[in-house]
Amino acid sequence: MKTGYKVCDAMTNRPIGVSPETSIKECAQVMKRNNIGSVVVVDKSGRLVGHLTEQAILHEVVAKGHDASRVAAERVMAKGVATTSPEKDIFDALMRMCDLDVKQLPVMAGKRLVGILTLKDILKIQPQLFELLAEKFELREESRKPIFEFKQEGFCDYCCRYSEAVSNIRGVSLCSDCMRRHQDFLNAE
Question: Which SS3 state, helix, strand or coil, does residue 113 take?
């Protein structure tokens, strides 16, 4: 699927960066001040050397009881960071994010960092891609939650008729007529 929007259309052009020596405390303050969930880590020449997320700080520093003012970004940052190109379609970038289970991708033009792409950036430009993203979410205690699955065209598994709007309920595709007919059964589960 192609959206017609490139990564460069949606990305943040000036990602917030820190040096590898920056303390985790300072990194967290930078994230809070800029209302962001991650920072890129760049060396003195501006070359991308890592990516630091809130989650990494939480898991590697806070949960382990380390002093955030004494731990440098280079000890916690992800190295060998997955990136994307500014010319890629945002759908391809979104699929890469989902496959890698990340919320941000640094954007590289050759060896030069030119931006960062976040899930928020993509969903602001193409909100209909949320459907694809929602399918990738894993929820705790999913079996007890009333999960809405997006309607699509196809054949009803019960009456075998084609419908422009079948709903997938617990792995069974149902047309709206069969959903109404079997509402008691669906509510019982």
Answer: strand
